[in-house]
Write a sequence for this structure.
């Protein structure tokens, strides 16, 4: 019999953009304290929450923002987690060694224990998202974190677009996928294109929830930093892709979402996608490109 309770509450911390370069650690701690007082069990912070989104430019001085994981931030957040009895999911800039850095999320359990880290697997290289300059691709193999309240799959921002990552987390037992995120509109793009991108971002993640019969939460920052208007819209979707909560694109806020664990089994029993997967037919997924077979199916 599972030691987990039937319900638990996610806190999704949509933090404001940071155009001044301030350190937002204390701001995040205050937000976690407030969420805990409101009944949160698992607190998820946005991608690279301590600093501005420095990847808009390729500038070596930004490597000074990186730190060891575990290290000073995980120690401070671990103490906070133990004090409040909450799980904290914290996205940080990791220095593995000089010249080797990762975009990494650490998980602190409700007793303060450091459970481990996930290093972002998919690294974008787009206008104002120059992440390949800073981060090596992760080597964490999509781990699952068994916390006091739930089994978490932790992925990061650009990972949101890849169904394989979500599926592997689900196959390892994740009940909730959380995506710390820093995504927004490039101000020079047309308004209709901006709207399509936001819709696509939510749609594909709701698709991960549906395809895997679990909860998905994406946690973004909101507001303008240089050329990016971070669009907020932090949200949580249920196992049928239903929108359970959504923030707007205007304000810093914390969404509290109560998760019903039994919904996962109920939906998976109704839509048995895992039973019907043709695992014998998927070997091509490990190839970059597939050529047309000599003898196509008839």
């Amino acid at each position: 019999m599972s030691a987990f309770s039937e319900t638990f509450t996610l806190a999704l911390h949509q933090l404001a953009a940071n155009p001044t370069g301030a350190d937002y650690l204390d701001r995040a701690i205050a937000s976690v304290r407030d969420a805990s007082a409101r009944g949160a069990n698992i607190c998820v912070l946005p991608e690279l929450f301590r600093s501005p989104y420095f990847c808009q430019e390729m500038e070596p001085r930004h490597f000074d923002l990186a730190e060891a994981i575990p290290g000073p931030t995980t120690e401070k957040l671990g103490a906070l987690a133990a004090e409040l009895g909450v799980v904290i999911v914290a996205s940080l800039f990791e220095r593995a060694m000089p010249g080797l850095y990762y975009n990494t999320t650490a998980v602190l359990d409700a007793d303060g224990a450091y459970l481990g880290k996930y290093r972002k697997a998919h690294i974008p290289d787009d206008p104002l998202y120059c992440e390949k300059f800073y981060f090596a691709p992760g080597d964490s193999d999509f781990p699952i974190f068994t916390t006091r309240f739930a089994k978490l799959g932790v992925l990061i921002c650009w990972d949101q677009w890849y169904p394989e990552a979500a599926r592997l987390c689900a196959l390892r037992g994740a009940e909730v996928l959380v995506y710390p995120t820093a995504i927004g509109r490039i101000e020079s793009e047309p308004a209709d294109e901006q709207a399509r991108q936001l819709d696509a971002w939510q749609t594909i993640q709701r698709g991960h929830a549906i395809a895997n019969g679990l909860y998905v939460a994406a946690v973004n920052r909101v507001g303008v930093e240089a050329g990016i208007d971070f669009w907020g819209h932090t949200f949580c979707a249920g196992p049928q892709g239903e929108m359970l909560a959504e923030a707007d694109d205007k304000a810093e806020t914390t969404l509290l979402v109560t998760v019903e664990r039994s919904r996962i089994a109920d939906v998976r029993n109704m839509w048995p996608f895992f039973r019907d997967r043709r695992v014998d037919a998927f070997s091509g997924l490990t190839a970059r490109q597939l050529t047309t077979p000599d003898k196509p199916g008839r």
User: Anything to note?
Assistant: The helical segments are 25-37, 72-84, 163-171, 191-212, 262-270, 273-276. The longest strand covers residues 87-97. The first helix runs from residue 25 to 37. The mean pLDDT is 96.
